[in-house]
Amino acid sequence: MKIIAWILGIIFSLIFLAYIIAFTSFGNSIIAPTIELKIKEQTKMDSKLSTFSLSMSEIDVILEISEQNIIKIKGNYSLFSQSFDLNYKVELNNLASLKPLTNVELRNSLFTNGKVKGDMAFMNIDGVSDVASSTTTYHIELKDLNPTSIIAKINGAKLDELLEMGAQKNYADAKINLDVNFKNIVPNALDGDVVLKTKNGSLNTKVMRDDFNISIPPKTAFAMGLNAKLKGADIIYSYELASNLFKVTSSGSLTPTPLKLNVKYALDIKELELLKPLSGVDVRGSLKVDGTAKGVKEKLIVDAISDVASSETVVLATLEDFETKSVKARIKHLDIAKALFMLKQPHYSDGKFFLDADITNARASKLKGEITTSISDGLLDSNYITKTYEFKSKMPRTLFKLDTKTSLDADRAISKVDLDSSLANLNIKNAVVNIKSGKIKSDYKLNIPNLDSLYFATAQHLRGSLSANGDFTQGEDMTLNLYSKVAGGELVAKLHNDDLKADIKNIQTLDALHMLIYPEMFKSSLDAKLDYNLALKKGKLRGQLKDGEFTKNEMLDLIKQYARIDMYAERFKGDVSADINVDKITASLELKSNTSSIKTKDTKLDTKANSIDSKIDIVANKHPISVTLWGNISSPKVSVDAKELIKKEAQKVIKKEVNKIIEKEVGKSLDKEVGKLLKGFF
Fold it and tell me: Which is higher by pLDDT, 223 or 654?
């Protein structure tokens, strides 16, 4: 019996001790620091319990989460039945200081108070709040701490204050009324409705302009309405957002779990710039789109019809687990100028764009499908292009049309391209783009029917036409190979990034001079090599001329007159070189025939000024002649220095005449003596 008495004594002592610790002011003061420490660990803030009073039936707690943020709880409870009837008051005067607890940035204040009544199995929460200057009441029922019913009314909440509370700028202002009546929010047994209305809505034009560079009318009003009914597992809703700048509507039914949709939507946006804060896309102009979304998460079909850029656009997409599986699209008569305007791009061109796409697999790296595009009635904006690229003369009126056909194969896009324009025609049979790496490999064929039409870009008048073909590769480096039959010969070139290397084979100089509209004074065959850097506009040309003969020109006519030597009958060969520095060319030439030679060093050519400055040394059958060319390349001024030749000719004439006189007087020829005498004079 003594043992039992001792055991009972110990038990009662422990109970008494627990009572003292748990339910007396002395005990409260002992456990309060421990509870406070746990709260600090959970909130990660310097929280403190300024009041902690717990008795057998009453509780009174004041928790200071942080400076100016206080939660008060006071009321009655039953330890044995685990029921309670508590009053609470939440005074959050400094929401910004709660970031360590909320993990989001908040501002301003929030106040609410109310009553919690019930037990752990079922409880009711009734409260009021003035969130965003509203009049708010709410009733929440929880079963096993899970909400089963929510009834709330928010009247007159200010949108700008809600934005400010969420650390956002006041992009808009409106009065918000929300009526939530969820009698049951247990999944698959939903019962309730939601009514949301805004009134007196207006956009803040100054903030939109300052933050997004969007200019909108100063009086831009909007209103919004949502009406949703919850029935079983389904939500049936209708939504409208209307403004003098845009209108968005949607209605239908959806099942949250498992997801099932049957909805329709419509967008009528008069100014797309307004969506930039939401979409992050910098576009402008108007847009109308309407369509439907039907299906389940595993297979959702979305269609859209639009008049974007005055087009007839239809898109049908199939999604599986919200990932696009296939897409069919058709675009007709899209106005290119309007599309460029919407994308905030310069007005490069006018024309109509067409597209027909059937992508049976739209998954990355597994692409499969066909895309056909075309542009008709294309017209480049010559004024804009001329001004932008600072051409010295105006680009001619340029019409064009474009047709492309692209096959998608895994991570490759394989295209055939035909571009026909009044400037040039470009045909590509097989252009392969690696979508993943961005590498491009393509063949091409280029035809320019009238080279002089490119004068605006070349600043050089040209005659004739040009055709070229080759291949193009673009990856980490760019390589272009070119082959062309030009001026009676061949041009084989390779451009690697900015470095151009070209082999010129058997070019006929008369044809080349004719193309360049230079004086056609020398007929020959030219083989040469060119090294040129496009970025620096510098390079070198080294070549050889063969089977050369001169055509009729003023310089050789003068030589024939003075030297009585017909250099037109001579055949020349020799070397030519040129150093190119932007518009300046320094050239050297050395030609030789059986009896004569022509040499010039450091001839100055200015392609921009179309000028020449050259000194040419000619030895015609051992007779030296110096010729100077200067002025316009097409019709240069010519100066011939034939002093030595004239001196020799004068000696011959004088010698002949003097000898005739002496022979007549003395009866014999004194040819040697006369020659010595004339030498002294000259």
Answer: 223
